[in-house]
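TL;DR need structure tokens for one chain.
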Amino acid sequence: MKKLISLVLALILCLSLAACGGSGSGGGKKNFTVGICQLVQHPALDAATKGFRDALEEAMPGQITFDEKNASGDAATCATIVNGFVAGNVDLILANATPALQAASSATQSIPVLGTAITEYGVALDIANFSGTVGGNVSGTSDLAPLDQQAAMFDELLPAAKRIGILYCSAEANSVYQAQVVKAVLESAGKTVTIYTFADSNDVGAVTAQACGENDALYIPTDNTAASSAEAINNVAEPAGVPIICGEEGICTACGVATLSIDYYELGRTTGAMAAKILKGESKISEMPIEYFQGPVKKFNAAMCAELGVAVPEGYEVIE
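>> reply
TL;DR here they are.
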């Protein structure tokens, strides 16, 4: 009888331990906490966060508690935020923009980390010969649009522009990558290209003024500091009569004439769907390749084009 009782107790203990061991993602857990670290507030990143939340809430209604924090453009604050998430043992972290991803990937090797609005994961995480899958506890979505097609927009919209300035924040690794690619394409098309970088939002105006004074047109990649400072850029570039081709729609709306841009809300939704698969235990993050937005659209800022006398060919949609 004692042996029978011992066996029953052992079985109960095993089942209890199995239930506890399965309480993580996909192991029967019903409620999850998701930490969101967004680098800075601007339309593109805001849309990505909203898309992520909407998709995850639709996939797992009533099961998600979001802890959403904004780093106000400071990389050190990203580290503080994600370290708080790790200490709180959240179930998943969304890292919105490259500095947030870098901070999260350094802070934990066990909690799933999904990036969004990351241009190039190999560059962001210093992975040589990046294959498309990060591995470990990191995956996500990329906002990379075809850079050669963005560069080609100069001949389509601004054929007289021979001197092109590329403007971006030197602290953003993905902006450096985009600038190098676009510079090479433009130079192969016979353009004279000069790089102009600002360290932060404090010197955006001065650097933009120099770039406008020395060039016929400018290019701004998907740069978060530029996005949050787009009005300051426009306050210099528009009076100077210098048109800007932009890497994304939010920047273009504020200071550009045209862009080949992705839909950041839909990019966020894709990331949210990935999160749902991880939390439900349907997919292992270590095996999930980076996903890319398909079908970027050529768009133009009608008011800015009219102001600067830019003729827009067929194939461009007006930014609403």
